[in-house]
Each structure stands twice: as structure tokens, then as C-alpha cells.
Amino acid sequence: MQSSNISENTILEKSYTRADWQRGYESLYEEFDYWIDDIEGEIPPELQGTLFRNGPGLLDINGQPIHHPFDGDGMISRISFVNGRAHYRNRYVRTEEYIAEQKAGKILYRGAFGTQRPGGWLANFLDYKIKTIANTNVIYWGGKLLALWEATEPHRLDPYTLETLGKEYFNGALSTGQPFSAHPRLDRSCQQDNGAPCLVNFSIQPQLSTKITIFELNPAGEVIRKQAHKVPGFCFIHDFVITPNYCIFLQNPVTFNPIPMLLGIRSSGECIKFHLDRPTQIIVVPRNPKAGKEDIKILETQAGFIFHHVNAFEVGDEIVIDSICYDSLPEVEPKSDFRQVNFEANAPGKLWRFALQLQNGTVERKLIESRACEFPAINPANVGQQYRYLYIGATHAETGNAPLQAILKIDLDSGEKQLWSAAPRGFMGEPIFVPRPGGETEDDGWLLALVYDAAHHRSDVVILDARDLNKGALHLKHHIPYGLHGSFTPEVFVSP
Ligand SMILES: [Fe+2]
Prior knowledge:
The protein is mainly beta. It is built from 5 helices and 35 strands. It is globular and about 60 Å long. It binds fe (ii) ion (FE2).
């Protein structure tokens, strides 16, 4: 409840106003399909392909507000680049629950992050069902467009119409209701497949102990390797990293008490408690599916909370992991309003490097960037490999916590940094790096990002040259509510 008691001077010192930021959380009810004609600069003619993005498009159900944006129904945005032109289309993922709530015109389900069925605790008492929302990521792999949400199986979509085709089980490799994380990693040149590309993903099934399953998919979209392991304790793991030989999971020091959820008082997300006095565990699993329990190594480092990693790579026996780490996990309170979040009171995400020595089990960590940042991107050719450049959503100001308004480029070799900012009235989403065809340097390509422009209450598709952060922009006819993740494919999909 901060906006009303901020002094005028404080507002002027900020790089944004709360009112501007809040409008990016208005629902988008319409589904559009049009060629973009309001273009600033020029679309590079070599930029050919399709950017898919996912995120919560509805922040209310027929006027009933949801409690947390992570509970919002998944809306896919597609921006197709073809011969110097660009086309926009958006469509909601038709999960069973989306269809039922739209038909009923009211909230029917509990959300994982705090949305309750109307009617108080009694209406939620012993209700285990969590709404499927398919809102976190979208990938095109093996000829299939998949909307991902980490708590359940993917939804398959038609890449031309964005129509929902049903749930995807990869020919039975995934069982009914089995999670499939929203953060797959692409190994461009897999050692086990003689250098062929391979998509690696995981599922987390937490109970008293947690089952981690690793899936490796070939370019035809078939699961060709699968391994499952149980690790002690409750895990909340949103993202992971890969190297040629390992999958690595950082287990945040959290516990889960389901009682308030079962009583209908709190959502499952509100039952997670962060423990500053316990270490973060680093679970290192060999990618060789013949690896047994004895081959899994668990190392420890100082407590912190991690949603996202940038990348990892091996140097001899050492594994290096770059991650965005928070000092703690802000707990979601049942009566709180996410639009009134006190940024200054919450720990900002900062970029850390962890160096793991597998032989003696030690971990060293060092701070790479203290500016608040989130949503990292790299050249996809460098996933699991040594790399030089990273790009990340960042705050406009160098210190403090605030909404993301900028993209920060970091040269990890020289330490040089560049910042492109959309402040004061622009708010940044996740950047995606698209390599320039035939490009010779690691940063030869473009950064594509959705920026909410509060001055016009619309979103821009920003195209930055990744070498110097020079900008072009496509102005959409409408806003896109703040999203989560997306991906780019060189294949061009436009509406039929
Ligand atoms: Fe994520």
C-alpha cells in the first residue's frame, strides 16, 4: 500500500510512475490478426522467422480480479517477420479451465499463486484442484508448437492459427498430468547424438521427497532419453542448466506446508516458506541415462532464491553457472495486491557466477552485476558452452529495486556494459537473441523484446542490433499485458 504515501519528490526521483507500470497489467480481451504498419526505422530484411511469446493475458475473469499475475490465463502472441514486413496475431490457449471459466463468466478454480474461488475459505476447503493456465513459455520443436506451464503437460497449438489442438504426451513418454517444465534448453550439438541438436527438459514432482525426470528430445520431437531420480525434500525448481555432460538443478532452501491450502485459507504458492538459514543445494545429474544414484552429486552454497539461470559450461572438472539470485523469496500474502508491491522492500535479483569443483565438492560464488535484473538471454549457439555476451532485462537505475525498463548487455570477457533504456514510460519484457544468418561474432544478431509503452497504452516490438543496441520498433495497435517467456524460430508462420 505504498503509492498513496509516496511524496512528490520521491516520485520525481524515480525512473517510472506506479500508475504507468500498473496499466501494463490490464487484461487484453481481444484476439487480433493484422499486418503491422506503424514501424519506426526498418525491419532488417535478413530477420526472417517467427517470435512466439507467452504470458498471462487475463488479469480478471469477467471483472473478478485474479490474485497474482502468474495465475493469469496463457495468451500467445506471435510476431512473424517476412521480407521486411511483420505480422501480429494473439490467441488464448484453450485449456479446459479457460473454456469453462469463460463460459461461466466467473472464477471457478483456485490458482497456484493466490487466486481463490469466491466465497471465502469454505468455498476452497479441501479443493486440491489447481487451474491449468499454460502461460509461461512457448516453443516450436519437432514440428510442434507447445505452450508450457511447469505444473502439467504442454498444450499443443497450430502455429498458423494458434488454435489449441490438445495436450501433448510425446507418444506416451509423458503420463497424464505429468509436469513438463517451461524452461527447456537446446543443446545445439549433442555429444550423445553425434553432434545433432537435442532439446533437454525436466519435470519436478515434489512430495516428501522430489522426483526429477529428465527428457531429451531429438529434432523430430521424440523423447530419445529419459531418466528419473528422487532427491530428498520438497523442491521448488523453475529452471535448470545443461552442459555437454550434466543437467544441473539449484534447489532453493524452501519448505511447503500444505495445511493452510487444504483448509482453504491460502493457495499452494502462499504455503512455501523460504529459509535463509539453510543452504541452496546444487544437484548435478550426469546426462548419460545409464548414470545411477551414486553418480548424482549434491553440493551446497549460501542461501538465495533463483528463478532463472543464464547459462552453464564446463572447464575441465569445474562447472560454471551464471544465475539471477535473490537474497530471499518474497512471500505472497493472501490479502496483498500485486499492483501495490513495494519494490524497494523486496530484494532485487542480481547476477551471480557459481564455480563448482566436482572433485572436492566446493562452490565459490561471485557477484557479476549488482543492478537489479531478470530474464536473461544469450546467443542460442552458446547454450552449455563458454560464452562472452549476455543480455538481460534490467532496471533503469543502477541501484535499488524497480520494474524492468532496460536491456543490459554484459561482455563477460572485458566487463564492458551497455544499457538501452525505455524509461520513463516504457517497461521491458524478456529479450530474445536472434542470430543474424551468416553472422560471424557471438553478438551479431538482434534482440527482440516486447516493451509496454504507457504513454500510448500500447506495446512495441523492439528490435535492437545486439552489437550496439541501436533500435527499431514496431508499434502494435494495443498493449500486451506483461508476459513471461518466448522463443524464436527461423520458420515463418503467418495466418492462412
Ligand atoms: Fe521462467
